[in-house]
TrEMBL record:
This is Uncharacterized protein. It comes from the Eukaryota.
Length: 51
């Protein structure tokens, strides 16, 4: 995988983590699910831009 793609993926994960409103999900399972869904959305956005 190229360095640029790794940087984009890391940036997406970072954004997903910082975008998380941890007051909304009230337990660790819901927080994990929320972060995972957000990361997937960000990854898809980046993947579509790079195609």
């Amino acid at each position: 995988m190229s360095t640029i793609r790794k940087e984009l993926i890391n940036a997406a994960i970072s954004r997903a983590t910082t975008l998380g409103d941890y007051n909304v999900p009230n337990d660790i399972d819901k927080q994990f699910e929320f972060i995972q869904q957000t990361e997937q959305k960000e990854f898809v956005k980046i993947a579509i831009k790079n195609v």
